[in-house]
Design goal:
Helix content is about 25%, strand content about 25%. A hairpin with a 5-residue loop joins strand 7 and strand 8. It is globular, with a radius of gyration of 22 Å. The longest helix is centred in the middle third of the chain and has 20 residues. A four-stranded parallel β-sheet has the order 14-13-12-18. A three-stranded antiparallel β-sheet has the order 5-6-9, with no helix packed on it. The protein is of the alpha/beta class and about 350 residues long. The protein has two domains: about 180 residues, FAD/NAD(P)-binding domain (3-Layer(bba) Sandwich), CATH 3.50.50; about 150 residues, FAD/NAD(P)-binding domain, CATH 3.50.50. GO terms for molecular function: NADH dehydrogenase (ubiquinone) activity; NADH dehydrogenase activity. Keywords: FAD, Flavoprotein, NAD, Oxidoreductase. Pfam families: Pyr_redox_2.
Length: about 350
């Protein structure tokens, strides 16, 4: 059985395309009810609020509609084994003002909220009296999603201009991409990092490396050095953490809220609880863990499927291998690829 709070699924690495309107969610999302029927599994809609590991019971919150009216009451589901595959959310590291004044793009709902704000901002700039600044400026903080979004914004401005939605085109917007590390995409090779930097700069993106943000305001980003970057829209895509409610389930978690698992992907506390992907902290050597990469999550999913069968058959479980590298890529207009060395 699959449990998810949403009725449909959009692959997270494509959310930046949904945010800019390049992707049509109705065409690219997966409907769980249809998918479950076609692939022989059961689906229930709901959000996990607690786990009773002694009784093997999952506690689910009520399901509400857009107006806050209850559609389904709180429920309980029994289980033999449970797999946590909840992914991650952006980590603002407690930076003042980020939660209030920055967009996050961790879900389709957040991506669509950014899209509405982006279009409304473009529309306002057609009237000089409503402009915040001389040039429409978007500030994006960090990570691969930020890199991809920066590139897509110029395509979005061309599309909006071509369809007559706004008179603003790519020559009238300014995009600032800020990265705290010494270079973009520090998890990839320097060659890939430099290629991406060159391509973004050719599009018109202003890149700030070695630049941490100490505060976000409604129309401003303030760096650790005190520089103030005036903006119309702020986006935060720096760092990840697992959903905070995982720390309330009675399972051992790390400082990023990730469930600590053995290399078999079983929780260190309970062999009947598995976790994979960004919400799991899987050891990789003595002092490191498997990085939060889609490629790693895909490999973990394949291993976990085998391990569940082995568990049911009473066979020994396999450990997650220690690969030499994962192929990593940047989608969209940049179309770059490289290897992440473990």
């Amino acid at each position: 059985m699959l449990l998810d709070r949403n009725a449909t699924h959009v692959w997270k690495p494509l959310l930046h395309e949904l945010a800019t309107g390049v992707l049509n969610s109705s065409m690219d999302e997966v409907d769980y009810r249809g998918h479950s029927t076609a692939h022989y599994y059961r689906y229930q809609r709901g959000s996990l609020t607690g786990v009773d590991r002694q009784q093997r019971v999952l506690h689910l919150a009520p399901v509400e509609d857009e107006d806050g009216d209850e559609v389904l009451p709180a429920r309980e589901l029994t289980y033999d084994y449970v797999v946590m595959a909840l992914g991650s959310v952006s980590n603002d590291f407690g930076t003042p003002g980020v939660a209030e004044h920055c967009h996050f793009i961790d879900s389709p709902q957040q991506a669509k909220a950014f899209q509405r704000d982006m279009i409304n901002t473009f529309l306002r700039y057609t009237d000089p009296t409503l402009r915040q600044h001389v040039q429409l400026t978007i500030g994006i903080v960090g990570a691969a999603t930020g890199v991809e979004l920066a590139a897509e914004l110029f395509d979005a401005s061309r599309i909006l201009n071509a369809y007559g939605v706004t008179a603003i085109d790519h020559q009238h917007i300014s995009v600032h991409l800020l990265e705290a590390a010494p270079r973009l995409l520090p998890g990839l090779s320097e060659r890939v990092s430099q290629t991406v930097k060159t391509e973004l700069e050719s599009m018109g993106v202003t890149i700030h490396t070695d630049t941490a943000i100490k505060e976000a305001q409604a129309y401003k980003l303030i760096t650790g050095d005190g520089e103030e970057i005036e903006t119309d829209i702020n986006v935060w895509a720096a760092g990840i953490k697992a959903p905070s409610f995982l720390t309330e389930l009675g399972l051992t978690t790390n400082k990023k809220n990730q469930i600590e698992v053995k290399r078999t992907l079983q929780s260190v506390d309970d062999d009947r609880v598995f976790a994979l992907g960004d919400c799991a902290s899987c050891p990789m050597g003595e002092d490191s863990t498997v990085p939060p990469r889609a490629q790693a999550a895909h490999q973990q999913a394949k291993l976990l499927a085998k391990n569940l069968v082995h568990e049911l058959d009473g066979k020994p479980l396999q450990d997650f291998p220690l690969p030499r590298s994962w192929l990593a890529g940047i989608a969209g207009p940049l179309r770059c690829g490289g290897q992440f060395n473990a």
